[in-house]
Amino acid sequence: MLWQERPIRMKEDTIAKIKEETAGWEYMQNLPEEWHGFRLQREPVIGKDKYDLYSYVNEGWHKKVIVYFHEETHEYKVRLKIGLIEFARIEFITGKLSVFEELLTSQFEQLLKDTAQFNPATLSSIVMDLKLPEWQWGRELPLENEGFELFIKPAEPVKINNGSYIVIDYVDFALESSFTVYYNIYRGEFFSEARIWNIPDVNYDFDSNDLQELEEKLCARMPARLQQVRQWAEEQKDDIHYGSN
Question: Which domain covers residue 196, as residue numbers?
């Protein structure tokens, strides 16, 4: 099969469909300009397969909540960007704008609240049983490590999708690079991922079945991993900036 480059913009008939369906959409017209610390951005953004209808943003928090149409699945959805990580919230997925409005009306404000400030109620009983918020070693993590900022800490894990939670997230926003530790409730396993200029780089050096094993591996290997991520990001900086010009 010959490789074919994906179009840089979604199909014109999809764009026309979304514009027609959302023209005069009263719910969107009546949205507050500021909501729980976020500012509304009304200007639509059209990408390869996503039509962002609007978003709520707080640049200082590095958080964004986006309401959009996904061409690949032909559904309306909500996705979050927290730090460098983006993910969809499955409870908002629907193919009908009328149903989407009902979901937004009943759940979107709470989503903003939970995104603005950690809500312990978002944690599953499995995560609570791990006693992540009480993990002493996790509470003593440095706020800065090898030039990375501790953006998400174990005391306030963030629920994403597919049963996973972000447990630790060290980020350098200037380099768009990070080191992240996750926990998946279905596999009962901790695992990690780095991002270099927001491109994932996975290894299995931190895979662990419990907090004790994770702590031992983080103590032994995290400093070197952070140094490696920084080195790779610095080495690629000129290429990244050149490619964006």
Answer: 120-244
